[in-house]
Amino acid sequence: MSTDTQLVVISIGNTRTHIASVEGGTCGAPSCFSNDDLAGAVERVVELWKPMSETGNGSILMADVNEPAALRLSSAINGQLSEDIYRIGHDVPIPMMVSLDPETITGTDRLLNALAAWESVQQACIIVDAGTAVTVDFIDGEGTFHGGAIAPGANMQLKAMHEFTDALPDMEFHKPETGAFGKSTGDAMLMGVSAGIRGLVWKLVEQYADEYGAYPMVIATGGDAEALFGDDELIDRIVGNLTLIGIAACARHALAGDSSDPTEDSSAG
């Protein structure tokens, strides 16, 4: 990668893939695809890559928490473009200090969120990622990732209620539109899931603040962040493409010659 590299950044989650371009340090609006929509994802990468290939200074970076989906997409992109795809955590390190048990394997997306948030605010913060799972992670005032909590996401909870009961319907999560009470079975399920996740986050934020001795900034991201936290005063800001910004930050550090990988020493702290 050259110092003036333009980027196509790809984040593959458990169920969805997000793709964006990065130029001049600015991450463009992401496109979202189901992990099953391989053709759509490849088409978007090719579309973003075409103008970069004409300048000869573009790179494609991918981060994932779903290895099979990542391998399928990497192979498909390479088949279309014959270009190298740099994988975060494999080819490009994540320059984030961590304080975790030595045997812990931390999700790439959580570390990328932490890196993007830390570089943006340069202060202690809590990252709430509301996707397939809900993660609530803490970064201290020195920029060290301390881990946090993992819980089922909204759609996972709704799916579990449907699959493990006889009468509860199969439905997708969206923001509850009713008042204080769910007036139908579906509304009651949405209310329960929404209130449960919001309550979980409030409790964990209080717990982290007590442990740290100060009240950190709270940043939300993920596909369900707006529906869950758009009107929640606990959340200081919602950044929908935080993981993609973290991928771009990794590229920037790599281009600057920061080849060390702080995540390798997970026993720090």
Q: Catalogue the unreliable spans.
A: 263-269
Spell the H/E element sequence: EEEEHEHEEHEEEHHEHEH
Shape summary: globular
Provide the gyration radius in Å.
19 Å
Overall structural domain count = 2
Structural class: alpha/beta
Overall strand count: 12
Outline the structure in words.
The chain is of the alpha/beta class and 269 residues long. The chain has 2 domains: 6-87, Nucleotidyltransferase, domain 5 (2-Layer Sandwich), CATH 3.30.420.40; 100-245, Nucleotidyltransferase, domain 5, CATH 3.30.420.40. The chain contains 7 helices and 12 strands. The strands form 2 sheets. Strands 1, 2, 3, 4, 5 and 6 form a 6-stranded mixed sheet that branches. Helix 1 (38-55) crosses helix 2. The longest helix has 28 residues, at 185-212. It is globular. The chain starts with 5 loop residues before the first strand and ends in a 14-residue tail after the last helix. Mean pLDDT is 91; it is low at 263-269.
